[in-house]
């Protein structure tokens, strides 16, 4: 069974999926339109490219980095990033709670939040760290997060760089077979397509698989860093006891103009909600 979050992600990604399917159909139609699709099948060339690309990758990076790559890709394609509007609303709610119930009341939110970076930020706030300590700690977290993601993206970039080269290796292997049958026109005509398809495979793998995967990781990283920036600014504003309305205005500057209409939170509503929770707990 799919979770509500996964269903929402699939609905939002529907246009991308439909567009991808159409593009793949158009792409493959170019191979089938002239018939004789067997000319594009070259198992030996495909194995040379896959084996050579993976071998070069294993020599360049350790297995831990490659395992992290698969985990990042699984997250990038299987889990949607939080909406910035939602993050702003959460931070403004925390600001109201801090004004109504005090700083230590945020400890419960630290335990319950599902956003790791926000949980760390609240923990620093509750632990009584200074503003500079909070800022330095969160900035360091963002810096090394980006470094780790960039290193993961470089794995795919390496694979995209070497795949066409091993495609040429496969083509050379096919040309050697062609030269071995020199003088026989039938052998030459049969081996030339096989030799050229190896280069084709390398180019397709590099530009249709590895580079798009790397671009997805970069885009995902930019989105997550954007959310982390919002959280950092919001937590520092809570530390300075900035009024929730002013905090809301400040964080709205991160959002697109179309997302800034109205208020994310009603001070009175949140206050009543907190007082009602206290009443139920005391009862």
Termini Cα gap: 38 Å
Fraction of residues in H or I helices? over 70%
Q: Count the strands?
A: 0
Round the mean pLDDT to the nearest integer and report it.
80
Overall, the morphology is: elongated
Enumerate the spans where pLDDT stays under 50 for 5 or more consecutive residues.
none
Largest sheet: none
Instruction: Please identify the structural class as seen in this structure.
Output: mainly alpha
Alpha plus pi helix count:
11
What fraction strand?
Answer: under 5%
Describe this entry's structure for a reader:
Helices cover 80% and strands 0% of the residues. The chain is mainly α. Helix 4 crosses helix 8. The mean pLDDT is 80.
In short:
With 283 residues, the chain is mainly α. It has eleven helices and no strands.
List keywords for this structure.
283 residues; 80% helix; 0% strand
Question: Which helices and strands occur, and which strands form pairs?
Answer:
Blueprint: H1 4-12, H2 14-32, H3 43-60, H4 63-78, H5 84-101, H6 107-112, H7 116-126, H8 131-180, H9 185-239, H10 244-252, H11 267-282
Helix pairs in contact: 3-8, 3-9, 4-8, 4-9, 5-9, 5-10, 5-11, 7-8, 7-9, 8-9
């Amino acid at each position: 069974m799919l979770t509500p979050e996964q269903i929402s992600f699939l609905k939002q990604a529907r246009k991308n999926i439909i567009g991808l399917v159409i593009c793949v159909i158009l792409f493959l139609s170019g191979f089938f339109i002239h018939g004789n699709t067997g000319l594009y099948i070259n198992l030996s060339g495909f194995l040379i490219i896959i084996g050579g690309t993976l071998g070069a990758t294993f020599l360049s990076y350790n297995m831990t980095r490659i395992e992290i790559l698969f985990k990042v890709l699984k997250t990038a394609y299987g889990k949607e990033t939080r909406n910035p509007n939602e993050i702003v609303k959460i931070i403004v709610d925390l600001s109201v709670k801090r004004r109504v119930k005090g700083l230590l009341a945020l400890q419960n939110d630290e335990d319950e939040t599902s956003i790791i970076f926000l949980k760390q930020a609240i923990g620093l706030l509750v632990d009584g760290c200074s503003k500079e300590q909070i800022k330095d700690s969160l900035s360091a977290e963002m810096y090394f997060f980006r470094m780790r993601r960039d290193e993961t993206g470089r794995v795919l970039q390496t694979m995209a760089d070497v795949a066409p080269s091993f495609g040429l290796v496969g083509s050379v292997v096919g040309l050697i077979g062609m030269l071995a049958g020199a003088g026989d026109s039938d052998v030459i005509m049969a081996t030339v397509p096989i030799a050229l398809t190896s280069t084709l495979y390398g180019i397709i793998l590099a530009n249709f698989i590895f580079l798009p995967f790397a671009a997805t990781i970069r885009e995902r990283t930019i989105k997550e860093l954007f959310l982390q920036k919002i959280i950092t600014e919001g937590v520092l504003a809570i530390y300075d006891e900035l009024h929730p309305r002013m905090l809301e205005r400040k964080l709205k500057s991160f959002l697109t103009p179309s997302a800034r209409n109205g208020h994310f939170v009603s001070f009175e509503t949140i206050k009543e909600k907190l007082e009602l929770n206290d009443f139920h707990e005391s009862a």
